[in-house]
Write a structure and sequence with these properties.
Layout: H1 3-19, E1 27-30, H2 34-43, E2 52-55, H3 58-66, H4 74-77, E3 80-85, E4 89-90, E5 96-97, H5 104-112, E6 114-122, E7 135-139, H6 144-153, E8 157-160, E9 171-176, H7 183-191, E10 196-199, E11 201-202, E12 209-214, E13 217-222
Parallel strand pairs: 1-2, 1-3, 3-6, 6-12
Antiparallel strand pairs: 4-5, 5-11, 7-9, 7-10, 8-9, 12-13
Helix pairs in contact: 1-2
The structure holds ribose-5-phosphate.
């Protein structure tokens, strides 16, 4: 199976994971990216079985609405029972690096409001240590150079993601050559730099369930 087929398999598995728990008043939290898109496409035919969704990006909101799924503001919903999203890397503790598509901040906000985070990823995303994928950091534009210097102090090689503006009007710095031994501590350390909105480590609030697409099927890894 190629990577797209593995992503489709985990999107199918995520539908199976939640389908029996959909109620008329259910509002789902929906992530961003190519794997999340496959999940959204599979939600379309189920739209009459739940109330709607909160999206972690404008792109996902538009995709949901095109399928006839109502999109709600997170402030009007409060909590969501599930947040379903992909990842750029995930480890055995279900800590992740996310933000390859620059949606990390809204993703982290919706994930924080979710009772369960279901991560869907093809097998290439599973790693023993996070950091081979460059860690994204969303910054307030005027702080970009300052934050980059602070990231160098932490051992990263920061690179400005030219031309990218987040849904929040901010910029992205990617941290290269930055293997992360303690994701929980590093997430907090980077977030403490003035001018950082958030970083793409999802460790303090990692996933609860990982559906991992492999050649021999979808492996389900659950922490709780
Ligand atoms: O900002 C983007 C998100 O964090 C995505 O969930 C992540 O980059 C994974 O995307 P994909 O499913 O396209 O590999």
């Amino acid at each position: 199976m190629n990577q797209d087929e593995l992503k489709a398999a985990v999107a199918d598995a995520a539908i199976k994971e939640i389908a029996s728990q959909l109620e008329k008043d259910t509002v789902l939290g929906i992530g961003t990216g190519s794997t999340a898109n496959l999940f959204i496409d599979r939600l379309g035919p189920l739209r009459d079985r739940f109330k709607g969704a909160v999206a972690s990006s404008k792109a996902s909101a538009e995709r949901l609405e095109r399928l006839g799924i109502e999109v709600f503001e997170l402030n009007d919903v409060g909590t969501v029972p599930f947040y379903i999203d992909g990842a750029d890397e995930v480890n055995a503790h279900l800590h992740m690096i996310k933000g390859g598509g620059a949606a990390l901040t809204r993703e982290k906000i919706v994930a924080a409001c979710a009772k369960r985070f279901i991560c869907i990823a093809d097998g290439s995303k599973y790693v023993s240590q996070l950091g081979n994928f460059p860690l994204p950091v969303e910054v307030i534009p005027m702080a970009r150079s300052y934050v980059a210097r602070e990231l160098v102090v932490l051992g990263a090689e920061p690179v400005y993601r030219q031309g990218v503006v987040t849904d929040n009007g901010n910029q992205i710095i990617d941290c290269f050559e930055f293997m992360i031994a303690d994701p929980v501590a590093m997430e907090a350390r980077i977030n403490a730099i003035v001018g950082v909105v958030t970083n793409g480590l999802f460790a303090a609030r990692g996933a609860d369930v990982l559906l991992l697409g492999k050649e021999d099927g979808v492996e389900r890894i659950a922490l709780t």
